[in-house]
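U., I forgot to send this yesterday:
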Amino acid sequence: MPARNLILLVAVTVASVAAWFARDRDSRGRRVNEVLALVDAAYINPVDGGELVDSAIDGVVSKLDEHSAFLRGDGQQELEAALDQRFGGVGLELTIDERTGELAVAMPLTGGPAWKAGIVAGDRIKAIDGASTAGLPLREAVAKLRGEPGQEVTLTVSSPAEPANAQVRRDVRLVREVVEIESVLGDRRRADGSWDWWLEGEPGVALLRVTGFGERTAAELDAALAQVTGGQVRSVGAPTPLRGVLIDLRGNPGGLLTAAVDVCDRFLDEGVIVSTRGRQAPDSGAVDENPPDVRRATPGMALGGAPIAVLVDGLTASSAEIVAACLQDHGRATVVGGRTYGKGTIQSILPLDGGGLLKLTTAEYLRPSGATLNRRPDDADDAPWGVVPDEGFGVAPSGEALDRMARWRRLRDMQPAVTLSGGTAAMPRAVDEVLARALDIFPAVSAGKPEFGGEEEAAGDAHEATPAGV
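Result:
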């Protein structure tokens, strides 16, 4: 057959296949449009066409997996705020008082509009712009208080410290600002609102609580490590050398893959951090047809030989699992606590022309060992998913112990700090079973300097109800 005829045959075949697929897609589109048109014309009550389309998209995405979603409105704003670590608001973390059902201030964010206006932890928000908050769901209260920077909002506030029959309500006018969300927290607040990274009652031990992985997480971690490795250990008498670092990832739902990679890179000098593998070819089990995308550490490592413990639980997920798995596989950290959630998939955030975001699962994570992190619906408990604590370091606190710790931690995070009954706050070791077990891996201070297995310490590179930020 002449070459030109062969080329023509191939071109016609390709065009025919493309036309068939286009016809198939068009037929499905026509079917959806037909249903929408019939509903619009014949349904007993008038309906909003836009809402129907959004519901149709919800239905499509719901057939995929639990992590894919169609986001718009408040859901879209919450995701963007979590990843960007900023939003327009008044700088308050809110909760609902379980005893009274009132909208209460869990903590004002240092430097925010509410903090500057003198609103303190424990204050009750009685009204927002004159509308009572009695019975108002937390989610709706958050939506009312968030908004564009420069907009005003008036809060009616009372203090529970006053006698119930004499509580004075006061109106506080606030101007919304850009509020930045912290993702790296320490052991407790100092008087100026900054974090004390040193674990109370444990000389030479630093605590870094990472609550999510956003745009600024790596920079926040760098700032904390600069203080930790700078030898600023506060103690009675002579300074105490760094004995070890606790990285607390409990309750961390994850976030940006790039942020997790950057955090791991701080503690490794070389090697694989994580691999991601996308869609495989249909009816093919050959992995080499779609090889993993490998992220590797770059030279330079923080903390030198100082030991690290990573604290995890069943709510540690996604990017947080990447960090725990990476440091565990490289022998850089001991993992302590409970088995993690097992969310080892990547969701790409895809903007839609008509508004909203499509959060679509497009790939899965593989830990440095090559094992999967993702738990599939039919996986048994003995299947290789999630991150399992190191041998001898599994800790499963009771529900009562977890509730007590959550209350203690919420009080401890307030600024200024609130003490428990008796006038003295309990030490972390006495309240937190997982943290107490992790402390066992750190060396005792001997002659003013801990031993790190022959390596010298080196300076590194420069819940009850969960409160909702507004």
